[in-house]
Amino acid sequence: MTESPPATPQLLRRVSAGAVLEFLRASQAVTVTEVMEATGLTRATAISVCEDLMARGWIRELENQRAFGGYQKGRPARRFELNERAGYVLGMDVGVSKATVVVADLRGRTLGRSTQAFARADIPAEERVAVVDRTALLALAGSGASPDAVLAVCAGIAAPVDRHGDVLVRQHFWELFDVGLKTALLEMRGWTVLLENDANLAALGDRWQGAAAGVDDVVVILASERLGAGLIDNGRLLHGRDGGAGELAFLEWVEGVGDTYGIAFLARNWAAEALAGTAGTTLRKYAADGVEAEHVFAAAAAGDAVARQILDRVAVRMARVVGAVATLLNPELVVIGGAVANSADMLLGAITERLAQFTATPPRVAVSPLGDSIVTAGAVRRALDYVEQNSLDLELTAAG
């Protein structure tokens, strides 16, 4: 059993500073009393922490206005607010075909975004790193932020990552993402890079800003091309020994599923199968360029019988997937996320209706409102958490 580090004055000071910054990130101007109520700190400690953070440039004290225009007896309360442009974080979604980078301020608000494609899936490691670096610089340029003001970076990749940030490389596909990104960006830019599995970040992102806000037991399934899951149990993100928690390869042995293909993949391929037959469908107008998942959803919404049959097959399959996950983990909520989530709300009724057939503990099912930003949202949140936990060790260079 690993013992917790002793509660030294330095550790308590670090934890207190992180708690105050976390509170200020989600608040506007606050008083010392409000800081005390939110963090549990004594008045003396709250004042000390606020003054320390102010001296370091993380927060600023606002000019007091007595009763905001009226009369107020005695000394007015001191008010503080986060210096949200004291530094920046980067959230990255590094997939097989492209990299997306988001620049966010210390409140987590997106200031810039860029996406660049990889030439092919199996490009050399140094080329993949170069594309990620170029994407990051473009996003920073678009936001007006300096690379020197980046305090932390979190990158989501489509491979298991353990709690120490090491990539599990037991499959060739996972090896594509073991490119030394942490070391490369530290050497090139001086950035601290945190690696995390993309589905894990999707779970963090949706619990922060999506359908799972406030839910402590949730599974978020990235469901576009391939299925992968991020697991939060009692408010804690699960990694497993090697980072493999949430891998869904076991679905190959689940009756009526048989693989880990996602909603977009299935809709596209089942539409191609339908077009190879003689069925009458409005999907035929897309045949020359290829039917995509969004075409199937749109056609179903317009009443196309073939498209509706395809989505019904998808819904039954996803009900089996959710049922299997619910039987293993018993979450309160399962969220369908990724780019396909923009349309997948059409499937919710059919999935929910069938769930009781596949599990004795059916959860609520929802679609994430974050769309294809779900991974970068989680990456931003993870980077902000790191900044707040290490604020006393970070030097601010951005103008306030």
Secondary structure layout plus pairing:
Elements: H1 9-25, E1 30-31, H2 32-39, H3 43-56, E2 59-62, E3 79-82, E4 88-94, E5 98-104, E6 110-117, H4 125-143, E7 150-157, H5 172-175, H6 181-189, E8 193-197, H7 198-209, E9 218-222, E10 228-233, E11 236-237, H8 263-275, H9 293-301, H10 305-329, E12 333-337, H11 341-344, H12 348-354, E13 364-367, H13 374-389
Helix pairs in contact: 1-3, 1-13, 2-3, 7-13, 8-10, 9-10, 10-12
Sum this structure up briefly.
The protein has 400 residues and is α/β, with parallel strands linked by helices. Helix content is 39%, strand content 17%.
Q: Report the sheet-strand fraction.
A: 15-25%
CATH superfamily of the largest domain: ATPase, nucleotide binding domain
Largest sheet: 5 strands, mixed
Number of strands: 13
From the alpha-carbon coordinates, what is the Rg to the nearest angstrom? 24 Å
Number of domains: 3
* Average pLDDT over all residues: 91
**Structural class computed from helices and strand pairing:** alpha/beta
Specify the helix fraction band: 25-40%
**Distance between the first and last residues' Cα:** 44 Å
The second-level CATH architecture of the largest domain is 2-Layer Sandwich
Number of helices: 13
The first-level CATH class of the largest domain is given as Alpha Beta
Low-confidence stretches: 66-71
Q: Report the CATH topology name of the largest domain.
A: Nucleotidyltransferase, domain 5
- Widest beta sheet: strand line-up: 6-5-4-7-8
Envelope shape: globular
